[in-house]
Amino acid sequence: MGPEKKWIFTLFSGAFITFLIFLSFISGFSSSNYSAFPPHKPAVHHGPGHPPAFAYYISGGRGDVERLFRLLLAVYHPRNRYLLHITAEGSDEERLRLGALVKSMPAVRAFGNVDVIGKPDPNTYMGSTNIAAILRAAAVLLKVDGGWDWFITLSALDYPLITQDDLSHVFSSISRDLNFIDHTSDLGWKEGQRIQPIVVDPGIYLARRTQIFHATEKRQMPDAFTVFTGKSFIQHFVIGSRSFLEFCIFGWDNLPRTLLMYSTNVALPQEVYFHSVICNSPEFKNTTVNADLRYFVWDDPPKMEPHILRESDYEDMVNSGSAFARQFEKEGSVLDMIDKRVLLRGRNRATPGAWCKGRRSWLMDPCSLWGDVNVVKAGPQAKKFGGSIDKILDDRNSQPNTCM
Asked: Is the C-alpha dihedral spanning 277, 267, 230, 66 positive or negative?
């Protein structure tokens, strides 16, 4: 190589290294929000006169780290509280990786409102370990945060159809003691196939994961209480008020404990427990709203899980007025459509809201800088969601008893 070529090569190499350092600098700037200094944390106000807040329990299994983190970003807001759970089938390395991803968010470091369960719960398909994990999560969220108003369960298969500002804006206009639980006492085929058969979940007492097994005999239906369940093939998601979750955890009468013991030997107890507790409780049965605000599409005949949502389902989904949808493929292209058109969320960035004050650009996450987190601003999707809530509540108010 001649002197002239060596000089050009040296110049090019130096320029290339300088460019890499510059990219590293701006990348660090946009992601860390001046991480060398403690990020500013404005006051978060809860209670009457302020927008409602939500406690999210988000669960997944082995291989769900990226899905859980993406879902967290999609539903994140500094006013809320989040508990993430990778069940026992996942590895400690996955929990550590999820924790590292969570801590990479500047807002999470500032507000400290996201936790990852370090000691996982078992999760036997159709077994009582599922309801045990949900109740444990509710107990943790009640203990660590006194400000949230509603408890929401999500899994790695779910995704929001509205922003958190939309959700908080619409829920600001309703009573904070309402509980959104799809329920019925007309058990139909479920009575003989799910309620009466006696099942045992080995995950309660065995370290290794196994499946439930059935006893040879069935039990009679109880006469001390009425069993309620979801109306669809499988419907167990709830949006429960804080007061109702406190009742389930602390149980100032014996009903929650009685129904928990009964549900322990029921297939899919999470589809029975909350529904039966609330509809057998004189204190809470009139707080029920017979909807879970989820969008599902069932195959015909229905399978154990709803139809996988794809791009062809997008229009019906976003026009449904639902808050969440299930189920999606991992990294499905329809999720990108929801991010781009509904949530206005960039890749690896939180869904922006009124609290985000950063300049929107490819270099900077607008939610790496924040202002007043006690202000919410409704977006276009809030009108559809609000209309759906109004219709659901009108139907509820026209019925003398919602637990039937």
From this structure: positive
Backbone torsions φ then ψ of 171, nearest 5 degrees: -70, -15
Residue 174 has pLDDT above 80, yes or no: yes
The domains of the chain, with CATH numbers, are 54-187+222-397 (3.90.550)
- In this structure, what are the phi and psi dihedrals at residue 210, rounded to the nearest 5 degrees? -135, 180
Alpha-carbon torsion (340, 341, 344, 349), positive or negative: negative
pLDDT greater than 70 at residue 8: no
Pick from 147, 158, 161, 183: which is nearest to 52 by CA? 147
For 277, residues 6+ apart whose C-beta sits below 8 A from its C-beta are 247, 248, 255, 256, 259, 284
In this structure, are residues 323 and 293 in contact, taking their beta carbons and an 8 Å threshold? yes
Predicted TM-score (pTM) of the model is 0.88
Distance CA 113, CA 82 (A): 6
DSSP assignments along 246-286, one per residue = HHHHH-SSSHHHHHHHHHTTSSSGGGTHHHHHHHH-TTTGG
| Mean of per-residue pLDDT scores for the chain | 86
